[in-house]
Design goal:
Rossmann fold; globular
């Protein structure tokens, strides 16, 4: 089964959508569209009546709403609906929400239990910086964390701060798919691109496609390749 990303043009690159119940990493430099992509993914889930969860540690719910307020893809309605839960793990409400799922096993066991107990269908985790805050040894503990997430019945996007598409990290190896956002400075201004680097179970070509911000959010041009 495939789920719609909610991003116009993107699903054409991955055989109609993301395979459900899998883990995907979204990487790229700051300002390239990672958060917008993830917000559109969550909004699409809410529109389809799915149970969604947005996990962060560096942005409040109101800040995220403000960031997305310039777009008209419906994020404001989605984030205020019963379909979307917002969990900031460094706030007291966020800590209380997840602490009820036990103190043993740290973040991994508690977050997995939260996802399973609440019947969550879509998850966004923003970002790998969150993991560095909670794990003593990220390189060791991230393997168990991501492996546990992959066992849930949720389709999960993990936002990564990686800026080099050729430099694979642990999360890239463990994920079912890796989507990379590019920013190219050209004489005419900023050229944006999106590249599906890895997608298990899906035929991809790894070419960079044109990407732009519009009033409706991100727009992918699947037939336009970026010349680098």
């Amino acid at each position: 089964m495939r789920v719609a990303s909610g991003v116009p043009g993107f699903d054409d690159l991955v055989d109609g959508g993301l395979l459900s119940d899998r883990l995907y990493v979204v990487s790229g430099p700051p300002g390239s569209g990672k958060t917008t992509f993830s917000s559109m993914f969550i909004t699409q889930g809410a529109k389809e009546g799915e149970s969604c969860l947005y996990v962060t540690m560096h942005e409040t719910k109101s800040e995220l709403r403000e960031d997305m307020s310039g777009f008209e893809f419906g994020f404001d309605r989605a984030i205020q609906s019963n379909a979307v839960q917002f969990l900031n793990l460094v706030t007291e409400p966020g800590k209380r929400a997840i602490s009820q799922f036990g103190k043993e096993g740290g973040l991994t066991n508690r977050l997995v239990a939260y996802i399973e107990s609440n019947g969550i269908d879509r998850v966004v985790i923003d970002s790998t910086l969150l993991l560095q805050h909670f794990f003593n040894d990220v390189s060791d503990e991230i393997t168990g964390f991501l492996s546990a997430l992959k066992q849930t019945d949720a389709t999960i996007i993990l936002i990564s701060e990686m800026t080099d598409p050729s430099a694979y990290s642990d999360e890239h190896y463990l994920a079912h798919g890796v989507i990379f956002f590019h920013n190219f400075l050209e004489s005419g201004g900023m050229q944006r691109g999106i590249q599906v680097i890895k997608m298990r179970g899906t035929a991809i070509d790894c070419d960079i496609r044109e990407l732009e911000f519009s009033g409706e959010g991100l727009l992918v041009h699947p037939d336009r390749k970026v010349q680098t």
